[in-house]
Amino acid sequence: MNLVLCLTEACNLRCAYCYYRESQAARALVMPDSVLERSIDFAYERTRELGQNYLNITFFGGEPLLRMDAVRNGVELAKRYASDDFRVRFAVNTNGTLLNSEILDFFKTERVFIYISIDGPREIHDACRRTVNGNGSFALIEPHISRLVEQNAVVLRVISRRRIAGLADSVRWIHRCGFRNMTTAVDFDGNWTSEDMEALAAEYRDLAGFWVERKIVGDKFYLGLFQDKFRLRLENSRYRNLTCHILDGAVAVAADGGIFPCTRFISSRADAPYRLGDVFHGINPARAEELRKFFVEDKKECEGCALAPRCIAHECACVSFYTTGSLAGVSPEVCAHERMLTEICDEAARKILKAKI
Asked: What span, in angstroms and rounded, lies between the C-alpha atoms of 279 and 42?
Protein backbone atom coordinates (compact mmCIF):
# COMPACT_ATOMS: atom_id res chain seq x y z
CA MET A 1 0.00 0.00 0.00
CA ASN A 2 1.20 3.48 -0.83
CA LEU A 3 -0.25 6.33 1.23
CA VAL A 4 0.15 9.79 -0.31
CA LEU A 5 -0.20 12.61 2.20
CA CYS A 6 -0.90 16.16 1.02
CA LEU A 7 0.72 17.88 4.00
CA THR A 8 -0.05 21.33 2.66
CA GLU A 9 -1.57 22.96 -0.39
CA ALA A 10 0.92 25.82 -0.07
CA CYS A 11 3.85 25.98 -2.47
CA ASN A 12 6.74 28.40 -2.92
CA LEU A 13 6.74 27.88 -6.70
CA ARG A 14 4.25 28.74 -9.43
CA CYS A 15 5.17 26.27 -12.13
CA ALA A 16 3.59 26.98 -15.50
CA TYR A 17 2.24 23.45 -15.78
CA CYS A 18 1.09 22.83 -12.19
CA TYR A 19 -2.01 20.63 -12.28
CA TYR A 20 -3.13 21.85 -8.84
CA ARG A 21 -3.56 25.45 -9.97
CA GLU A 22 -7.32 24.87 -10.11
CA SER A 23 -8.08 22.13 -7.59
CA GLN A 24 -5.91 23.82 -4.95
CA ALA A 25 -6.24 27.38 -6.23
CA ALA A 26 -6.20 29.04 -2.79
CA ARG A 27 -3.06 27.07 -1.77
CA ALA A 28 -3.96 27.71 1.84
CA LEU A 29 -4.98 24.47 3.54
CA VAL A 30 -2.55 22.73 5.88
CA MET A 31 -3.03 19.18 7.19
CA PRO A 32 -3.73 19.23 10.96
CA ASP A 33 -1.77 16.84 13.18
CA SER A 34 -4.99 14.97 13.97
CA VAL A 35 -5.55 14.24 10.27
CA LEU A 36 -1.92 13.24 9.80
CA GLU A 37 -2.08 10.71 12.65
CA ARG A 38 -5.46 9.33 11.60
CA SER A 39 -4.30 9.02 7.97
CA ILE A 40 -1.39 6.83 8.97
CA ASP A 41 -3.59 4.72 11.26
CA PHE A 42 -6.17 4.37 8.48
CA ALA A 43 -3.52 3.31 5.93
CA TYR A 44 -2.09 0.70 8.30
CA GLU A 45 -5.55 -0.72 9.02
CA ARG A 46 -6.42 -0.86 5.33
CA THR A 47 -3.10 -2.45 4.44
CA ARG A 48 -3.70 -5.20 6.96
CA GLU A 49 -7.31 -5.67 5.78
CA LEU A 50 -6.02 -6.23 2.24
CA GLY A 51 -3.55 -8.85 3.49
CA GLN A 52 -0.53 -6.74 2.63
CA ASN A 53 2.59 -6.38 4.77
CA TYR A 54 4.14 -3.25 3.31
CA LEU A 55 3.24 0.42 3.76
CA ASN A 56 5.00 3.22 1.90
CA ILE A 57 4.17 6.77 2.93
CA THR A 58 4.82 9.51 0.38
CA PHE A 59 4.92 13.07 1.69
CA PHE A 60 3.34 15.33 -0.90
CA GLY A 61 1.95 18.82 -1.38
CA GLY A 62 1.98 21.62 -2.44
CA GLU A 63 5.57 21.59 -1.36
CA PRO A 64 5.92 19.14 1.55
CA LEU A 65 9.16 20.62 2.84
CA LEU A 66 7.15 23.66 3.93
CA ARG A 67 5.84 21.19 6.52
CA MET A 68 9.10 19.54 7.51
CA ASP A 69 7.69 19.32 11.02
CA ALA A 70 4.88 17.11 9.72
CA VAL A 71 7.33 14.97 7.75
CA ARG A 72 9.32 14.28 10.92
CA ASN A 73 6.15 13.66 12.91
CA GLY A 74 4.77 11.36 10.23
CA VAL A 75 7.92 9.28 10.19
CA GLU A 76 7.80 8.79 13.95
CA LEU A 77 4.08 7.96 13.94
CA ALA A 78 4.46 5.38 11.18
CA LYS A 79 7.54 3.71 12.66
CA ARG A 80 5.32 2.45 15.48
CA TYR A 81 3.89 -0.07 13.02
CA ALA A 82 7.18 -1.42 11.73
CA SER A 83 7.87 -5.01 12.77
CA ASP A 84 9.51 -8.19 11.55
CA ASP A 85 6.44 -8.99 9.44
CA PHE A 86 5.44 -5.43 8.43
CA ARG A 87 7.68 -3.02 6.54
CA VAL A 88 7.28 0.75 6.65
CA ARG A 89 9.09 2.95 4.15
CA PHE A 90 8.97 6.64 3.24
CA ALA A 91 9.28 8.86 0.19
CA VAL A 92 8.99 12.57 -0.52
CA ASN A 93 8.06 14.47 -3.69
CA THR A 94 9.78 17.84 -3.57
CA ASN A 95 10.75 20.75 -5.79
CA GLY A 96 14.06 20.78 -3.91
CA THR A 97 14.20 24.52 -3.26
CA LEU A 98 14.02 24.17 0.54
CA LEU A 99 16.60 21.43 0.92
CA ASN A 100 19.56 21.82 3.25
CA SER A 101 22.15 19.52 4.76
CA GLU A 102 20.07 18.84 7.87
CA ILE A 103 17.04 17.74 5.85
CA LEU A 104 19.14 15.59 3.55
CA ASP A 105 20.82 13.99 6.57
CA PHE A 106 17.38 13.21 8.03
CA PHE A 107 16.25 11.63 4.75
CA LYS A 108 19.40 9.53 4.66
CA THR A 109 19.05 8.38 8.26
CA GLU A 110 15.37 7.49 7.87
CA ARG A 111 15.86 6.07 4.36
CA VAL A 112 13.37 8.49 2.85
CA PHE A 113 13.34 7.98 -0.92
CA ILE A 114 13.57 11.32 -2.72
CA TYR A 115 11.68 12.29 -5.88
CA ILE A 116 13.08 15.60 -7.08
CA SER A 117 11.56 17.81 -9.78
CA ILE A 118 14.29 18.94 -12.18
CA ASP A 119 13.65 19.82 -15.81
CA GLY A 120 17.29 20.19 -16.80
CA PRO A 121 20.03 22.84 -16.64
CA ARG A 122 19.25 26.38 -15.52
CA GLU A 123 17.88 27.81 -18.78
CA ILE A 124 15.49 24.89 -19.31
CA HIS A 125 14.49 24.39 -15.68
CA ASP A 126 13.77 28.07 -15.07
CA ALA A 127 11.59 28.37 -18.18
CA CYS A 128 8.60 26.86 -16.35
CA ARG A 129 9.63 26.36 -12.73
CA ARG A 130 9.62 29.79 -11.15
CA THR A 131 9.11 31.11 -7.62
CA VAL A 132 6.06 33.05 -6.41
CA ASN A 133 8.10 36.19 -7.15
CA GLY A 134 8.75 35.13 -10.72
CA ASN A 135 12.40 34.19 -10.21
CA GLY A 136 14.00 31.02 -11.52
CA SER A 137 14.30 28.19 -9.00
CA PHE A 138 17.34 26.34 -10.36
CA ALA A 139 19.82 28.27 -8.20
CA LEU A 140 18.07 27.00 -5.07
CA ILE A 141 18.45 23.36 -6.15
CA GLU A 142 21.91 23.37 -7.72
CA PRO A 143 23.93 23.30 -4.44
CA HIS A 144 22.27 20.01 -3.46
CA ILE A 145 22.60 18.08 -6.71
CA SER A 146 25.65 16.08 -5.60
CA ARG A 147 23.90 14.99 -2.39
CA LEU A 148 20.75 14.10 -4.31
CA VAL A 149 22.81 11.93 -6.64
CA GLU A 150 24.56 10.31 -3.68
CA GLN A 151 21.20 9.49 -2.12
CA ASN A 152 19.92 7.99 -5.38
CA ALA A 153 17.12 10.50 -5.89
CA VAL A 154 14.72 9.96 -8.78
CA VAL A 155 14.39 12.90 -11.15
CA LEU A 156 10.88 13.87 -12.23
CA ARG A 157 11.01 15.79 -15.52
CA VAL A 158 7.89 17.51 -16.87
CA ILE A 159 7.52 17.84 -20.64
CA SER A 160 5.66 20.98 -21.63
CA ARG A 161 4.67 22.34 -25.04
CA ARG A 162 5.95 25.68 -23.72
CA ARG A 163 9.52 24.37 -23.91
CA ILE A 164 9.88 21.35 -26.20
CA ALA A 165 13.28 22.22 -27.62
CA GLY A 166 16.15 20.87 -25.56
CA LEU A 167 14.34 17.90 -24.03
CA ALA A 168 16.91 15.33 -25.18
CA ASP A 169 19.82 17.55 -24.18
CA SER A 170 18.27 18.13 -20.75
CA VAL A 171 18.12 14.37 -20.13
CA ARG A 172 21.75 14.02 -21.20
CA TRP A 173 22.60 16.77 -18.71
CA ILE A 174 20.67 14.99 -15.93
CA HIS A 175 22.62 11.83 -16.77
CA ARG A 176 25.96 13.71 -16.69
CA CYS A 177 25.08 15.04 -13.25
CA GLY A 178 25.14 11.44 -12.07
CA PHE A 179 21.42 10.69 -11.66
CA ARG A 180 20.59 7.15 -12.66
CA ASN A 181 16.82 7.10 -12.30
CA MET A 182 14.35 9.45 -13.93
CA THR A 183 10.82 9.53 -15.21
CA THR A 184 8.84 12.02 -17.23
CA ALA A 185 5.32 13.39 -17.32
CA VAL A 186 3.75 15.27 -20.20
CA ASP A 187 1.68 18.35 -19.45
CA PHE A 188 -1.38 17.47 -21.51
CA ASP A 189 -3.20 20.79 -21.37
CA GLY A 190 -5.48 20.34 -24.37
CA ASN A 191 -3.53 22.82 -26.48
CA TRP A 192 -0.95 20.63 -28.18
CA THR A 193 -0.89 21.18 -31.95
CA SER A 194 0.29 18.79 -34.66
CA GLU A 195 3.39 20.97 -34.98
CA ASP A 196 4.05 20.58 -31.25
CA MET A 197 3.75 16.79 -31.54
CA GLU A 198 6.14 16.74 -34.48
CA ALA A 199 8.67 18.77 -32.52
CA LEU A 200 8.28 16.45 -29.53
CA ALA A 201 8.69 13.40 -31.77
CA ALA A 202 12.00 14.80 -33.01
CA GLU A 203 13.18 15.22 -29.40
CA TYR A 204 12.00 11.72 -28.53
CA ARG A 205 13.92 10.21 -31.46
CA ASP A 206 17.06 12.05 -30.38
CA LEU A 207 16.54 10.89 -26.80
CA ALA A 208 15.84 7.33 -27.91
CA GLY A 209 19.19 7.29 -29.68
CA PHE A 210 20.89 8.29 -26.44
CA TRP A 211 18.97 5.67 -24.45
CA VAL A 212 19.86 2.93 -26.92
CA GLU A 213 23.55 3.87 -26.68
CA ARG A 214 23.44 3.69 -22.88
CA LYS A 215 21.64 0.33 -22.83
CA ILE A 216 24.01 -1.26 -25.35
CA VAL A 217 27.04 -0.44 -23.19
CA GLY A 218 25.32 -1.73 -20.05
CA ASP A 219 24.53 1.62 -18.42
CA LYS A 220 22.00 1.13 -15.61
CA PHE A 221 20.40 4.53 -16.31
CA TYR A 222 16.63 4.08 -15.92
CA LEU A 223 14.44 6.23 -18.16
CA GLY A 224 10.82 5.37 -17.57
CA LEU A 225 9.68 7.15 -20.72
CA PHE A 226 11.00 4.26 -22.83
CA GLN A 227 11.63 1.42 -20.42
CA ASP A 228 8.08 1.10 -19.11
CA LYS A 229 6.72 0.55 -22.62
CA PHE A 230 9.60 -1.77 -23.45
CA ARG A 231 8.92 -3.84 -20.34
CA LEU A 232 5.18 -4.04 -21.06
CA ARG A 233 5.89 -5.41 -24.52
CA LEU A 234 8.40 -7.98 -23.27
CA GLU A 235 6.16 -9.15 -20.42
CA ASN A 236 2.96 -8.96 -22.46
CA SER A 237 1.51 -6.97 -19.56
CA ARG A 238 -0.39 -3.72 -19.21
CA TYR A 239 0.02 -0.40 -17.43
CA ARG A 240 -2.80 -1.07 -14.99
CA ASN A 241 -0.93 -4.08 -13.66
CA LEU A 242 2.47 -2.40 -13.66
CA THR A 243 1.96 1.14 -12.38
CA CYS A 244 -1.68 1.95 -11.60
CA HIS A 245 -2.62 0.82 -8.11
CA ILE A 246 -5.57 3.03 -7.23
CA LEU A 247 -7.82 1.88 -4.40
CA ASP A 248 -6.23 -1.43 -3.35
CA GLY A 249 -2.61 -0.43 -3.91
CA ALA A 250 -2.70 3.27 -3.11
CA VAL A 251 -4.76 6.03 -1.54
CA ALA A 252 -4.14 9.75 -1.48
CA VAL A 253 -5.25 11.95 1.40
CA ALA A 254 -5.97 15.65 0.98
CA ALA A 255 -4.98 18.17 3.62
CA ASP A 256 -8.52 18.07 5.05
CA GLY A 257 -8.52 14.26 5.34
CA GLY A 258 -10.45 13.50 2.17
CA ILE A 259 -9.56 10.20 0.49
CA PHE A 260 -8.83 10.11 -3.26
CA PRO A 261 -7.66 7.41 -5.69
CA CYS A 262 -4.27 8.96 -6.47
CA THR A 263 -2.25 12.18 -6.51
CA ARG A 264 -3.90 13.91 -9.48
CA PHE A 265 -7.34 13.65 -7.90
CA ILE A 266 -6.43 15.40 -4.63
CA SER A 267 -8.57 18.42 -3.83
CA SER A 268 -10.03 20.10 -0.76
CA ARG A 269 -13.09 21.26 -2.70
CA ALA A 270 -16.31 19.95 -1.17
CA ASP A 271 -17.59 18.93 -4.62
CA ALA A 272 -14.34 17.33 -5.74
CA PRO A 273 -14.86 14.42 -8.17
CA TYR A 274 -13.89 10.93 -7.01
CA ARG A 275 -13.69 11.84 -3.34
CA LEU A 276 -14.06 8.39 -1.80
CA GLY A 277 -14.62 9.35 1.81
CA ASP A 278 -12.34 10.56 4.57
CA VAL A 279 -9.85 9.05 6.97
CA PHE A 280 -12.24 9.29 9.93
CA HIS A 281 -15.13 7.46 8.27
CA GLY A 282 -13.33 5.32 5.71
CA ILE A 283 -14.02 4.62 2.05
CA ASN A 284 -17.59 4.68 0.78
CA PRO A 285 -18.04 1.35 -1.08
CA ALA A 286 -20.49 2.84 -3.58
CA ARG A 287 -18.02 5.56 -4.55
CA ALA A 288 -15.29 2.99 -4.96
CA GLU A 289 -17.28 0.88 -7.38
CA GLU A 290 -16.44 3.04 -10.41
CA LEU A 291 -12.76 2.57 -9.66
CA ARG A 292 -13.17 -1.19 -9.54
CA LYS A 293 -14.90 -1.10 -12.92
CA PHE A 294 -11.95 0.83 -14.33
CA PHE A 295 -9.69 -2.16 -13.72
CA VAL A 296 -11.91 -4.74 -15.37
CA GLU A 297 -13.55 -2.85 -18.21
CA ASP A 298 -11.80 -1.58 -21.33
CA LYS A 299 -12.80 1.80 -22.70
CA LYS A 300 -15.23 1.59 -25.58
CA GLU A 301 -13.30 4.16 -27.58
CA CYS A 302 -10.24 1.91 -27.44
CA GLU A 303 -11.85 -1.31 -28.65
CA GLY A 304 -9.67 -3.04 -31.24
CA CYS A 305 -6.58 -0.91 -30.55
CA ALA A 306 -3.53 -3.12 -30.15
CA LEU A 307 -1.73 -0.40 -28.22
CA ALA A 308 -4.39 -0.05 -25.51
CA PRO A 309 -2.59 -2.12 -22.81
CA ARG A 310 0.52 0.04 -23.20
CA CYS A 311 -1.29 3.37 -23.55
CA ILE A 312 -1.78 5.79 -20.66
CA ALA A 313 -4.88 7.23 -22.37
CA HIS A 314 -6.51 3.84 -21.82
CA GLU A 315 -4.68 2.53 -18.76
CA CYS A 316 -3.85 5.41 -16.41
CA ALA A 317 -6.61 6.64 -14.10
CA CYS A 318 -4.80 9.87 -13.28
CA VAL A 319 -4.22 10.84 -16.91
CA SER A 320 -7.78 9.92 -17.86
CA PHE A 321 -9.16 12.08 -15.07
CA TYR A 322 -7.10 15.19 -15.49
CA THR A 323 -7.36 15.29 -19.29
CA THR A 324 -11.06 14.45 -19.60
CA GLY A 325 -12.57 14.83 -16.11
CA SER A 326 -13.56 11.16 -16.07
CA LEU A 327 -12.00 7.74 -15.70
CA ALA A 328 -13.89 6.64 -18.80
CA GLY A 329 -12.71 9.47 -21.03
CA VAL A 330 -9.99 9.32 -23.69
CA SER A 331 -8.11 12.44 -24.69
CA PRO A 332 -7.33 12.62 -28.44
CA GLU A 333 -4.20 14.56 -27.48
CA VAL A 334 -2.95 11.76 -25.22
CA CYS A 335 -3.92 9.13 -27.77
CA ALA A 336 -1.87 10.85 -30.49
CA HIS A 337 1.09 11.16 -28.14
CA GLU A 338 0.98 7.50 -27.14
CA ARG A 339 0.83 6.27 -30.74
CA MET A 340 3.84 8.39 -31.61
CA LEU A 341 5.82 7.42 -28.52
CA THR A 342 5.08 3.69 -28.82
CA GLU A 343 6.40 3.60 -32.37
CA ILE A 344 9.63 5.30 -31.27
CA CYS A 345 9.96 3.01 -28.23
CA ASP A 346 9.51 -0.14 -30.30
CA GLU A 347 12.12 0.95 -32.82
CA ALA A 348 14.57 1.70 -29.99
CA ALA A 349 13.84 -1.69 -28.42
CA ARG A 350 14.54 -3.47 -31.71
CA LYS A 351 17.93 -1.76 -31.94
CA ILE A 352 18.84 -2.84 -28.42
CA LEU A 353 17.73 -6.43 -28.98
CA LYS A 354 19.61 -6.58 -32.29
CA ALA A 355 22.79 -5.32 -30.60
CA LYS A 356 22.45 -7.92 -27.83
CA ILE A 357 22.00 -10.89 -30.19
From this structure: 6
| Residue-wise DSSP of 260-306 | ESSGGG----TT-TT--EETTTEE-HHHHHHHHHHHH---GGGTT-T
Rounded-to-integer distance, Cα 123 and Cα 132, Å:
18
Averaged pLDDT of the chain: 92
End-to-end CA distance of the chain: 39
Low-confidence ranges of the chain (pLDDT < 70): 21-26, 357
Q: Using CB atoms within 10 A of its CB, is residue 167 exposed (0-12), middle (13-18) or buried (19+)?
A: buried
Provide the domain limits for residue 189: 2-242
C-alpha 74/C-alpha 4 separation (Å) is 12
CATH of the domain at 86: 3.20.20.70
Strand partners, 282: 278
Residue 26's pLDDT is 63
The total of structural domains in the chain comes to 1
Question: Would you say residue 344 lies in a domain?
Answer: no
Give residue 315's pLDDT: 87
